[in-house]
C-alpha cells in the first residue's frame, strides 16, 4: 500500500464547488460519494450508535452522533426544528394513588403518584411534527403530546406523540429521517418522495407508516387523540428496584376521532387552524378535555420469551400480556394568556425526570434526552429555565451564572454571592441527602455498533393492518398509492415488498392500486395537477 507523506497530503487536486475549494484527497477505501463527518472522517456505520451490547445504553463518546445531532438541533432559527406548529393549555394531574389495583409505591417512589386525589399543575403542548409554524393542522403527520408536570420535587416532562410507536429505533438516524420528510432542499416543495426513499431503506418504519397513512395520521383535533411516551422508561421504588414502563394518555369523556384524507381536505379548504381553535374554544366554554394516564409494566430484563425487544420504540407491547394500568387523570382547564410567552417558549426534554422515574437503555430515548435540552438552549436561550412557563414551581438554587438573557441569580437564602461553586467550606450550596436507595443497573457487554437482535420489522404492521376497520384500510391503501405513484419504481417495489411481508393482502392492494394508476395514465399526483389547474383556471387581468 502506498503511503502518503505529510508533504504530499493536502497537495491533491483542487476542486471548486462554487463556494469553496478543497483538496480532493481520499483514503484508500473512500470513493467520491463516501459519507464523512465534517472533520473528514469516513463514516462506516451511519445506522447504529455505539452502545454497551446491542441493547444499550449508548455512551457519551459517540462523536459522530454528537456532531450530527447538535448540528441538526441548530438548523433552524428561531422556529422549532420539529414540532413548530402547536397549541397549548394549562391544567392539573390528579393521582389515583394506585397503579391498577396495587399501591403505586410498589413500583415507584415518585411523590406525585403516591396520594389519591393529589393534584399537580401541568402545561401541555400539542403539535404537528414536520411542518412549519404556519402550516395547516390537517396535514398528515404524527402529533406531539408533551406534558410538563410542575411537581414538588421539580419538573417532569413526559414528551411523546399521539401514536404509540416511532419510525426508527436508533437516534443516529433522526436527522436523516427529518431531512427526508421535509420539503425538497432545492425546490422547497414538499412531497412524499424523499420520505419513502428513506423509509424504503428502513424496514423498521413499516409499522409507523401503516399508522401515519391511515386515518390515524390525521386526528380530528387535539382533544380527541391519544398520547404516548413512545419510549420505554423505568419506575424505581424505595428499595432501588426498577421495572420497565410505557406511558399512555387515553381520552376520557371526549373519545377518539380521526379523519380520512378527503375529510381533511374539506376542513383545510376553510380553516387551517381548526385544532387550535377547537382546543381554545372548548376550554373557554368550560368543556375541559380529560385524559387518563395509564402505564404498562414489565420486569427490567431482556425478555427473551418475546419476539421483539421491549426497548424497541417501533414496537407495541401487547395489551393482553401487559395491560394498561390507570394511575391518574389530567384535566386541561385554562387557556394561555399569551401564546408566545407560554406556548411558543415552552421547552420540553425527555431527560427531565424526578426521583422515582428513570431512563431505560432505549437508544432512541437516550439520544432524544441529549438532543431536546440542547435544542432548547439554542432556540430559546441558555437561561430558558428561568422563563415562567418553564421554571419549576418550587425553590431553585444553582451555581449556574451568566449566559444569554439571565434574569436573576438562582441563589439560596443566606448563600454568599461570592461562592458560585461547590464544594465549599463557607456559605455555599450543599449536596442533598440521599434518602432512598439508588437504582444501579449492571452491565457486562462489549462496546459495539449494532442494531437489536430481535428486529421483527413487519409482524406488528400486519397485525395493525388486520385490526383496522374496512374504511381505515381503504383510506390507508388510497393514501399510500397516491403517495407512492410519485416515487421511483425501485422505491415502489421495495415498499410493496415491505407491505407484503406485513400482510399479503396489504401488499397486493397497494401493488394493484399502483398498476391501475399507471395503466390509466393517472400517474400524475393531485399536487402536480393542482399546479396545472391554477394556471388553467386563473382569470386574466389587465395591469393597473
UniProtKB/TrEMBL annotation:
Q: Which family does it belong to?
A: Belongs to the catalase family.
Which residues does UniProt mark as catalytic? Answer: 83, 161
Which species does the entry assign this protein to? Answer: Paenibacillus ihbetae
Provide the residue positions that the database annotates as binding heme.
Answer: 372
Polar residues: which segments have biased composition? 36-51
Q: Which GO terms describe its cellular component?
A: cytoplasm
Q: Which GO terms describe its molecular function?
A: catalase activity; heme binding; metal ion binding
Which example biological process does GO assign this protein?
A: response to hydrogen peroxide
Q: What is this protein called?
A: Catalase
According to its UniProt record, the EC number is: 1.11.1.6
Q: Name one Pfam family in it.
A: Catalase-rel
Query: Sorted alphabetically, which SUPFAM superfamilies does this protein's record hold?
Result: Heme-dependent catalase-like (SSF56634)
Q: Where is this region: Disordered?
A: 1-55, 514-544
Which terms are listed as keywords in the entry?
Heme, Hydrogen peroxide, Iron, Metal-binding, Oxidoreductase, Peroxidase
- Establish whether keyword Heme is in the entry: yes
State the reactions this protein catalyses. Answer: 2 H2O2 = O2 + 2 H2O
Record function comment: Decomposes hydrogen peroxide into water and oxygen; serves to protect cells from the toxic effects of hydrogen peroxide.
